[in-house]
Structures are given as C-alpha cells and as structure tokens.
Amino acid sequence: MVHLASTVQANRKALRGGGDDVHNLSTVAQFVLMGLSDLPKVRYPLFVVFAIIYQITLVGNGAILLAIGTEKKLHTPMYYFLANLSLIDMFCSSTTVPKMLQNLLTEERGISFIGCALQLYFLVALMGTEVFLLAVMAYDRYVAICFPLRYTLLMTKVLCVQLSSGTWAAGFLNSFIHTMSTFKLSFCKSNLVDQYYCDIPQIVALSCSSTYMAEMLALVIGGIFGISAFLTTLISYIYIISSILRIQSVEGKRKAFSTCASHLLVVCLFYGTAIFTYMRRSSSRHSPARDRLISMLYGIITPMLNPIIYSLRNTEVKGALRKMLCCG
C-alpha cells in the first residue's frame, strides 16, 4: 500500500510537471493506467505470463484461420463465422495486451487522451462485434440442426457475408456512439484509471461533469443491442436443445450436440464474464480488484481459450490442424 501511494504521487508529479494538484487541472492531456500498479513485486513474472498468453492467443487463432483457409472441407458457414471469431480474438488481445506488457516492463503507465479514446473505441467495437457474431453463430447452428435438409439453401454464401459484415458494422457503430458520449465529458478531477486499459466505466467515473446521459446511453443502447443478441442466442439454443431431445438414437443426439458444443461453451464463457461488467452503471458499488479480474478473464483469457475449445472439441478442426502440421 505504501508503494502504491508513492507510485500514485510520482505519476501525478510527472503528469502535472509542477506543484499544481492534479485535481485542479481544467483538462486531462493523458491518463494513467493503475490496474497493475499494486503488484510491483511480481511485475516481471506477470510480464512473462501475459506475454506467453498473448503468443498462445495469436498462434492459436492464427492456426484456426490457416486451417480454415487451407482445408476445403471447412469452407462452410460454421467455419466462416469461426474465422471471424478468431480475427476478433486476435484484434481484441492486441488492443490491450501490448500496452499492458509495456507498462509492466517500464512502469510508465501513461496513455495519451487520444490513445485512450482509440483503445476504448476498438475494444468496445470488438467486444460488441463478438456479441453479435455469437448470436449469428447460434442462429447458424439452429438452422443446421432444426432444418438440416434446407441448410445449404438457407445459409448461402451471400447471406453469410451479409451477416458477418452486419456484425462488424453494428459493433463498430455501437462503439462509436459510446466513445463519443464518453469522451465528450469534462475530465478535471483525476487522470488515474483504475484498470489496466481504458474502459467506459472507469473513464466515466473520472468525469467532473454530469455523467447521467453517458451512463443512460450506455445502458439503453448497450442494453438493446446486448439483450437482442443474447435473446437470439438463447432462443436459438432452446430450439436446438428441444430438437436434439426429439432425436431417437443416442448416436444421433451425440452427433447433433457435438456440432454446437464448442460454440455453446464459448458463449457461456463470454457472457458469464462480460455481462457482469457492462450491464451496470459505472457509479454503482463494486470492487475494483474484482472488476480487473473479470476484465482480464474476458479480455485476455477468453481469446486464448476459444481456439483451444474449438480445436479440442471439433474433430474437423483437429483433422485440419493435424494435416496442416504434417504437411508443414
């Protein structure tokens, strides 16, 4: 705690360049990411751990992309959407982890105002895109299991491109609205962000102007998009499970469930961590340490686990990866 207090004071002095108190600043030129500042004794081990996780994320998702691109049997809607998921995971980790690794290595935790806005924009955009994409993937599994004979007629290449493009467009549009409303606020109270990256709740909490509209916008727009995507995923799986239960043979049930088991596991992992963080007002009582842990789970760990889940539970992906490695 003594080290943390001295670190905060040092950062404040470095940023203000004089004797003025940071609380008297009329504007904030940069923010200080304090999420990992209370772990100075283990910053080098943490650097190694997060660097390994980041490499596994890039290599794992890159291998999924390469396998889908080179194996003709995987040129189907299900794997087309999976390729999009792998891209999102790679981009999402690259938005936060490199800066976090730099902060751990150098202890220079400052990030410019524009850099913070860009980091928040791309992070929220990619997370939103993943929410929509998981809903599209659930719908794809619903059509495949509930209407197997009409699947190729319903899930055409054109529709797949339209659905994936729509998820990316919706995610980035949603993020643009939130980013603009967040950084239109006045920041003059403090520039210490209690997180290891720039995120909406922590940035809004630093504003010295009214945050009511920004918080309501985040709740209303985020709630509409998020609940719509969640309900699409939930209803799709209700129909999927009911269809599987009507299958007479045990082997038929196993095969039907195996086609959506990986996606269902990814959905549970993502929603179990992300919803808790975003579906609440930033001014509500919460534990910063708990928030940082949950943010780390869905921001760093989940992108690493997704390719592992799909490669371990999907025989076609395993076969394509094995074939790719053997040929290489």
From TrEMBL:
Q: Topology versus the membrane, per the UniProt entry? A: Multi-pass membrane protein
Q: Molecular function (GO) terms listed? A: G protein-coupled receptor activity; olfactory receptor activity
Alphabetized UniProt keyword annotations: Cell membrane, G-protein coupled receptor, Membrane, Olfaction, Receptor, Sensory transduction, Transducer, Transmembrane, Transmembrane helix
Please name the Gene3D superfamilies in this protein's record.
Answer: Rhodopsin 7-helix transmembrane proteins
Give me the segments passing through the membrane.
44-67, 79-98, 118-139, 151-177, 216-240, 261-281, 293-312
Using the record's annotation, list all stretches that form the G-protein coupled receptors family 1 profile domain.
60-310
Q: Any one cellular component term from GO for this entry?
A: plasma membrane
Which Pfam families does UniProt cross-reference here? 7tm_4
Major place of residence? membrane
Q: Which domain of life is it from?
A: Eukaryota
User: Where, subcellularly, is it found?
Assistant: Cell membrane
Which family is it part of?
Answer: Belongs to the G-protein coupled receptor 1 family.
What name does UniProt use for this protein? Olfactory receptor
